[in-house]
C-alpha cells in the first residue's frame, strides 16, 4: 500500500520521503509506505524568543467552569476537570498592558517575611555549619582520653538524626500540621545551640582548623611542610627559606648528612 | 562531675561536660530535620500558584547564598568566636520561632484561596 499521508514512520525515520516495508501504525496495513517529510519546528533560538512572549490571558483558576470558554465542560459520564495550575486557567491579576509573568506575583504581604524567614531558618541556624564542619567541631571538643574515631561517630550521628527528624516530620506533617514541628524544631535548635555555647570549654584538644585567612594550618600546613622538607634537602641542610621557618619552629627539621670531601689528586 | 573510667582503672575517658557538648550538637540534628522538612512542604503552599515555579526558584537559591555566607565565614572565627557564633544561631532560631508563631498561618487543610 502506498500512502502519502503524514504520520510517524513505524521504523522511526521521519526525515523525509522514503519507502518502508512494514505495518503501518495508523492504518494497520502491511505493505510499502511512502512517508512525507515531517514538518519541522522553528529553530531553537526562535523557540526561545517565542517563549519570552507574554502568555495568553485567561480567567481565574478558581472561577466557575462557565467562565472558561475553552475549558472542557463536565458531563455526567466524565470526571475530567481542568487542572487548577494549568497555564490556561491561571489567574490574571495584573492590570492590562503589562506582561503577565514579570514581575512575578508575590505572596500576600503577611506571608512574605515568613517565606524569607523559612530560608533563614534553614541555613542561618547552624545547619549548614554543622553539616560542613561537624567532624572539625567534634575534633575540637573531643574529650582528652577519647579516641579520634569518636569525631566521625558523632558526625555520623548528627547526619543520621538529620535524616530521622526529616522522615519523622514527613510522616507527621499531614496529621499535626505544619506549625508544631517547625516551632518545635526551632525551639529545640535554640536550646541545643544555646546550651552548647554556654557549656563550651575552649580548646580541649588544640587541633588546627582549616582557615581561609592563610595557609598556616590544615592542608596548607602539610603542603608547606613538604615544600620545606624538599627545600631543606636541596639546600643540604641549610636554611629552607620562608617556607621552612614554621617547620623549624615546630620541631627538628630533617637534615641531610654533610657530604664527604672529595679528595684532590696529587 | 560524671567521669567514665577505663575498665582496669586509668585515665578518664569521657567526662560529662565533654559528653554534653557532643550530645547538644547531635540533638541539633534531630531538631533541624523538622525545619528542613517543613520548609520543603510549606514553601510551595505559601506562594501564589501563578508564579510559584519562579518564586520557588528564587527562594531555593537564597538558602544556598546564605549557606555560602555562613560556611565561608565560620572558619575565620577563632575558638572563642565560635561560641559567639553558636549563640547567635540560637538567638536567631528563637527569634524565628517567635516570628512564625505570630505570622505563619497553619495551612493544613486550607485551599490556595484561603491561604
Encode the helix/strand succession of chain B as letters: EEHHH
Strand order of the largest sheet of chain B: 1-2
Q: Cα-atom Rg of chain B, whole angstroms? A: 21 Å
Task: Give the quaternary arrangement of the chains.
Answer: heterodimer
* Strand proportion of chain B: 5-15%
Distance between the termini of chain B: 52 Å
- Cα-based radius of gyration of chain A, to the nearest Å: 36 Å
**Helix and strand succession of chain A?**
EEHHHHHHH
The DSSP helix count of chain A reads: 7
Summed up, the helix count of chain B is 3
| Widest sheet, order of strands of chain A | 1-2
Helix content of chain B: 55-70%
The count of β-strands of chain B is: 2
Which descriptor suits the 3D outline of chain B? elongated
Shape field of chain A: flat
Describe the overall structure.
The complex is a heterodimer of chains A (266) and B (115). Among the domains of chain A are: 1-55, no CATH class; 113-199, no CATH class. Chain A is 39% helix and 5% strand. Chain A has seven helices and two strands; from the N terminus they run ββααααααα. Chain A has helices at 44-52, 112-123, 127-140, 149-172, 179-199, 218-234, 245-250; strands at 18-23, 30-35. In chain A, α3 packs antiparallel against α4 (149-172). The termini of chain A are far apart. Residues 1-8, 13-17, 73-78, 204-208, 210-220 and 233-254 of chain A have low confidence and may be disordered. Chain B has a domain at 3-76. Chain B contains three helices and two strands, in the order ββααα. Residues 1-13 of chain B have low confidence and may be disordered. Chains A and B meet through α2, α3, α4 and α5 of A and β2, α1, α2 and α3 of B.
